[in-house]
Amino acid sequence: MKTILSFLEQTVSYAIASAFSIPILEVHADITPCAQENFGHYQCNNALSLAKALQQNPRSIAQKIIDAIDPASFSQIQIAGPGFINFTLSPHFLSEELTQQLFDPLLGAELPVKTERVIVEFSSPNVAKELHVGHIRSTIIGDCLARVFEFLGQDVIRLNHIGDWGTQFGMLIAFMKEGVSKPGEPSIEELMAWYRSAKKRFDEDADFKKRGQREVVSLQGGDLTSLAFWEMICAISRRAFQEIYDLLDVKITERGESFYNPMLSSIEKEFAEKGLEVISNGAKCIYLEGFKNREGEPLPLMIQKSDGGYNYDTTDLAAIHHRIFTEKADRIIYVTDLGQSLHFQMVFAAAKKIGWLDPNKTQADHVGFGLVLGSDGKKFKTRSGDTEKLIDLLTEAESQAYGIAEERLPEASEEEKRHFAHVVGIGAIKYADLSTHRTKDYTFSYEKMLRFEGNTAVFLLYAYVRILGIKKKTGAPIEAVLRDKKIAVRHPSEIALGLHLRRFGETLHFVTKDLLPNRLTDYLYELAEKFNAFFRDCRVEGSLEQGERLLLCELCARILSQGLHLLGLHTVPRM
User: Fold this and answer.
1) Helices in 515-545 by DSSP H: which ranges?
2) CA angle 73, 532, 423 (to 5 degrees)
3) Dihedral sign from CA coordinates of 207, 213, 218, 219
4) What is the per-residue burial (b if ≥16 Cβ within 10 Å, else e) of 4-17?
5) Which end of the chain has fewer CB within 10 Å, C or N?
6) What pLDDT is attached to residue 129?
7) What span, in angstroms and rounded, lies between the C-alpha atoms of 98 and 111?
8) Is 486 helix (H, G, I), strand (E, B) or coil?
């Protein structure tokens, strides 16, 4: 099903081609949704751009475009300002569109012309460390983007580029070889304690540091003893990560740095063979135009260290090579904090310079995000000053949501209260994160995210429950209504709600374009507000329009539920 935006782009394109004898393939309709509905639902800006090329008055051009359009779908088409064209859809056309949308599996979203392979790399914790609050944004944002692409029919690969290789493992294995006679099964907490002790030794003891660095080379070279310790470390960490992913309902495929280890030497060799490698203090580096350090000196991308080992620069180059040539990705999305922006700019630049990354064939995006702050405006930490464990954060959210269940659903079973606490608690954390523009920092607050008012998960879940209540109160089986009735919008609040419902597909299109999940949260929040206005102004139960309005409620419930699912949230039957 086409979106209204696509319908208008096609309509205007043909009108321009017809009015000015321009080949249709050379026409691109410039249509934007209007924020203020009193100025029309959509606006065309082509007359202004055509005026210069055609040497004509833009308002005159706008009128010729209007004259070439079939007005049947519109209640009004008018020229505004210097030559903008405002389109207001007719209630009859909108009603027909909404009825089709109700039966559309994609709820008015549009499948891509060509299915693309989209690789989304997100979460990416480090082995031997617990997931902490700093990992929440990458995990939640990446999962949301993957869900949207999947819903729209793209071939999505979800990758967890875990830090399971490198200097920290040489350091940790060297420490374990001194204190552990053979690989055992410590807990993740014990493993982290070992890591902290190893790091302290590595920073303070020059001899231990050398042993740790040699262990990295041994590990990369396939030493069996080192590999045994490494595999044990990874297994413990993997179980701890999975506990969090299960809580968050996040599906992700582990593809750690170690996966690319066999490729690293060939990556370095290809840069050398193409004359792009420079030796600097014994290390092999790539220098890229436009990248300098704070002192204004050329900034290198190091692909092999002076001791013969490789680092994450080499690994990320191997990863992008594998994703382009082996996995045949059309789009590669990296979801990490904004602090890594420069690194990915350099990786993309290096991949372009060597001829791997062709922007006309493969699009590479770094999806950066800001920090999670505490009430003091600083990085979110525990009272003792430690980084907050993600498992503790999620557990506390469920605990506070359980308090809401006890207050609002005192007669509910313990099982229902626990389910409510999980859905609402986890959903509140996810929504608070996703509703923030990802490049901005946000302040973490259980009190704010669990409010029933404002742009929160709880507000949206309550709107959904309210619709379920309306449907139940009418007593009309929705299947029978679907057979006998069609949506018909007449009242201004019905039209406003209907128009917003019809923009669901457009919203998802914009999310895939600019990779901003808050576009979807903003859409759903506005949808809930428009539904509340409709409920205030338009009686459903017992009205002459009960069937038509019940179908409008049904469509609203389906889009709310689907939209929440794309954010990674579940719904509850009552609140």
Assistant:
1) 518-537
2) 115
3) positive
4) bbbbbbebbbbbbb
5) N
6) 84
7) 18
8) coil
Give yes or no for a contact between 334 and 342, defined as CB atoms under 8 angstroms apart: no
Half-sphere exposure of 278 (CA within 13 A, CB side): 9
Q: What is the DSSP string of 152-166?
A: TT-EEEEEE--B-SS
Write out the DSSP string of 248-309.
HT---EE--GGGGGGGHHHHHHHHHHTT--EEETTEEEEEEEEEE-TTSPEEEEEEE-TTS-
Sign of CA dihedral 205, 210, 214, 219: positive
pLDDT tens by residue, 141-192 = 999 999 999 999 999 999 999 998 877 888 999 998 887 645 557 788 888 8
Distance CA(143)–CA(150), nearest Å, equals: 10
The DSSP letter of residue 388 is P
**E runs forming strands in 331-387:** 331-337, 363-369, 372-373
Mean pLDDT of 308-313: 87
Residue with tokens 């014994």: 282
Q: What DSSP letter does each residue of 553-567 carry, written as one string?
A: HHHHHHHHHHHHHHT
Provide mean pLDDT across the span 244-272.
95
**Who's near 343: CB < 8 A, 6+ residues apart?**
313, 316
Same fold, 4-89 and 459-566: no
Contacts for 400-407: CB closer than 8 Å, 24+ residues apart:
400/425, 400/446, 400/450, 401/425, 401/428, 401/450, 404/450, 404/458
What is the bridge-based pairing of β-strands 253-254 and 155-160?
Answer: parallel
Question: Identity (one letter) of the amino acid at 297?
Answer: E
| Neighbour tally for 138: CB within 10 Å | 21
Domain-by-domain residue ranges, the chain?
4-89, 167-252, 390-449, 459-566
Tokens of 318: 């191997």
pLDDT given at position 223: 87
How many CA atoms lie less than 13 Å away from 69 in the CB half-sphere? 26
Residue 316 burial by Cβ neighbours in a 10 Å radius (0-12, 13-18, 19+): buried
- The token duo for 491 is 């009242």
At the topology level, CATH places domain 4-89 in Gyrase A; domain 2 (3.30.1360)
436 secondary structure, DSSP code: S
Of 57-71, 228-242, 357-371, 490-504, give the lowest mean pLDDT range. Answer: 228-242
Q: Domain 459-566: give its CATH code.
A: 1.10.730.10
The closest alpha carbon to 423, from 471, 474, 458, belongs to 458
Q: Is 81 left (phi over 0), alpha (psi -120 to 50) or beta?
A: left
Which among 548, 556, 536, 404 has a CA at the least distance from the CA of 468?
556
130 Cβ contact list (under 8 Å, min separation 6): 188, 189, 192, 240, 389, 390, 391
Cβ atoms of residues 141 and 369 within 8 Å: yes
Dihedral sign, CA of 480, 482, 487, 488?
Answer: negative
Bridge partners of 298, per DSSP, are 292
